[in-house]
Amino acid sequence: MRELSSPVRQSFEPALAPKKISRRVHDQNTWLGDSDPVHDRLMRTPNHIQPEILDSEEAVGRAQLEELKRIADSKEGDIVMILLGGRGAQAMYRIIGEVAKTSELDDLLKRLHVFTQDALAPLRMDNSLSFVRDFERLLGDAFFQKVKSFTPMQTDTNDLEGELTGYIEKLAALGGIDIFFLGLGPEANSASHLCYIKPGCGATAADIAGVIPISESILEHHINKFKVGGSAVTERDETECRAATHILTLGPAAILGARRIVQSIVDAGTAPAKRECYARFLETELSDHPQTRARQCDENPGLWLRLHPNVRSLVLPDVMN
Fold it and tell me: Helix, strand, coil shares of the chain as percentages rounded to 5?
């Protein structure tokens, strides 16, 4: 088995099953987490992430696929992967979708448990602005027929918390997240979101997932990235999407507990605010005081990624302009 390369090496124990899932409410945000959390995650030594600048979206996609292959080579048994919605991993999905029509990746795919990381709700699962439909479009039937399981966040239910609890329990039962593909979403004042953890939502290092009120910035960001990414969006689907009231999202504990994070930013040309967001993400000095650091991460949730010791950040040249 090959050892994973990493720009930072720290003592790191990935998160497994919480003893009991706790429920915490902050303003209108409901967070589900570990009732006996690992308290030192917030105060990990910050990772000074070094961007890896690649020349094309295709190159980013191939680098992402190589990371997935490395994970497969580094361990025995099943692999748990978190899909990234929007543009950031579309090139990888297209590559995998084509290769899945052959037998080249069959040994890997049959070990793969695939999960989504966020969603808008309520929303029909077959809405063209649902991540599930976009993943099906890009990855293709052969991929979903070959993977061991596919678990999306259910958005067409009256019990969002109950469904999200079951989702967390399934992730935990599989031993936690092996590889988490992440992007970086723009927010006001050059802040950023990871998954759909928005500024001011009160997420903490113990929160695995949450149900939070939708924000106008995330709604517009969500719809725009589908349209730019090539989805055929009907007027009916967009109207339904704009009526969504909540966001389902994985939380900081899921990110910090993953074994490997692969971040990608390929759409600064169509989302130019990402340039300043990424610069602030890279350059912010994280406080050594726990309360101040927690406030920094709540004001700018992208900073949670700086507390993970095993991150690869893939970007195109225009992100650094």
Answer: 40, 20, 40
State the pairing for strand pair 185-186/246-250: unpaired
Q: Between 51 and 20, whose confidence is greater? A: 51
CATH architecture of 26-34+50-320: 3-Layer(aba) Sandwich (3.40)
Alpha-carbon distance 119 to 123, whole Å?
Answer: 9
- What does the angle CA 270 – CA 319 – CA 198 come to, to the nearest 5 degrees? 70
Which residue stretches of the chain are H helix?
Answer: 57-74, 90-99, 106-109, 131-146, 160-173, 216-228, 235-242, 252-257, 273-283, 290-299
- 126 token code pair: 């077959």
C-alpha separations of 99 from 59, 73, 240, 280 in Å? 16, 18, 34, 37
Please, what sign has the CA dihedral across residues 271, 208, 176, 146? negative
Residue 119, beta-bridge partner list: 248
| Domain ranges, ordered by start, for the chain | 26-34+50-320
- When pLDDT is averaged across residues 228-255 and rounded to a whole number, the result is 92
- pLDDT tier for residue 15 given thresholds of 50, 70 and 90: low
Residue 299 gets which letter from DSSP?
A: H
Cα–Cα distance for residue pair 5/52, rounded to 1 Å: 13
Phi, psi (deg, nearest 5) at residue 175: 95, 10
196 Cβ contact list (under 8 Å, min separation 6): 118, 185, 212, 218, 247, 248, 249
- Burial class, 226, CB count within 10 angstroms (exposed 0-12 / middle 13-18 / buried 19+): buried
Interval 251-262 mean pLDDT: 97
Band of the pLDDT at 19, cuts 50, 70, 90? low
208 and 251 Cβ atoms separated by less than 8 Å: yes
Query: For residue range 124-157, what is the model confidence (pLDDT) as tens digits?
Result: 999 999 989 889 999 999 999 999 999 999 999 9
